[in-house]
Amino acid sequence: MEEMISLDTFQPFDGMTTMFPHHNFPYFSCDYNLYLTLARYFKKDELPILNNVISIYRFNEQKIQTRGYFKLEVMELEEGDQILEKIGISIRKKSPALDTLQDEIISSISRGHPISIFIDLFYQRGRDFYYNKKHGLHPVFVYGFNVTNGEIYTVDDITEYRQYSLPFSEFQLSCMTSEHAKMPDYFWEYALMPPGNPETLNNEKSAHTTIHTFVENMCRYQHEITEGLNNIMLLAENFGRIISNETITETLSSTIYRKCSEKYRLNTLYKYNLDPINAKDTLDPLLDQIINDWKMVRFYSNKAIMHHKFTGEIIDKCVEYLTKIYTNEVHFHNQYYLMLKAVRV
């Protein structure tokens, strides 16, 4: 008889996929997908996780020849561990020896505790950018183990954020490499905090508090966020020098999925009386247009790269879209802050 242990209700966070089908967008980063997956498994409030991020456009002319010259930067307000504790999930970090790893996994899952294990991507099949080419640590959820055939069940984002199964022997290879010197406690076990723990927020009260905190944080960073919009025009002014940079597609793609993450959060927050002035009718079409125009900039940039034709015509087209994005972002943020300030009254 097959011996298998698994957390049957453990499902990858799918909020972004539901809103943007056919795309593999994380919510701001793979770490946040991980936190949101845990919140759903433990039936906890997602709002403190959704609201822990502020995003600001940045431009650095010094980096035009390399990478990082432009980004929609993700700023975390609190450490991930603190946020999880706040919603009532504890983390125990340890470093099992490789020969006890299987027993540790089985022991955690038997107690209903999911685990994230940091692996070295150099050994992960399917990751074309890393596999046998480049080292880098990455957290993978483990939610099940088949003792009979030696398979391990994971949630990861190799091609899309979903469940995977692979031979444990292969997984084990990626668990203790020289990379792990950077993170000796590579095994993180998650559990529910006991009820009544002072760290934990009551869900009903928590929603109100979280909305209030979100509004305050957004207002505290208002100047930096709105000033950051000028960096879109700096990107436009320098676009002729940037379009041939091989990182342009990656840069634009991360900007797109981060804007999509903003849309996901906004649509979730509308359910909590965030919009007393009915700004949604203005904000939603603007945000959709901004996302769409970023996609157009990427489309034309890719076209130029593919045909090795960095013509004035294509650069002008991209600059035109970037100018439109800037105008719409300014309009969006004016309305957005009117809405947030109406919540404070």
Summarize the structure.
Helices cover 48% and strands 17% of the residues. The chain has 13 helices and nine strands. Helix 7 packs across helix 13 and helix 9 (230-237) runs antiparallel to helix 13.
Any key phrases for this structure?
alpha+beta, seven-stranded antiparallel beta sheet, 2 domains, 345 residues, Cathepsin B, Chain A, Four Helix Bundle (Hemerythrin (Met), subunit A)
Description:
This protein is an alpha+beta fold and 345 residues long. The protein has two domains: 4-20 and 89-192, Cathepsin B, Chain A (Alpha-Beta Complex); 202-344, Four Helix Bundle (Hemerythrin (Met), subunit A) (Up-down Bundle). The chain has 13 helices and nine strands. The protein has helices spanning 15-19, 30-41, 47-50, 80-86, 101-110, 168-173, 203-220, 222-228, 230-237, 239-242, 248-269, 280-307, 312-344, and strands at residues 4-6, 53-59, 70-76, 89-94, 115-120, 137-146, 151-156, 162-167, 187-192. Strands 1, 4, 5, 6, 7, 8 and 9 form a seven-stranded antiparallel beta sheet that branches. Strands 2-3 form a two-stranded antiparallel ribbon. The protein is globular, with a radius of gyration of 22 Å. The mean pLDDT is 91.
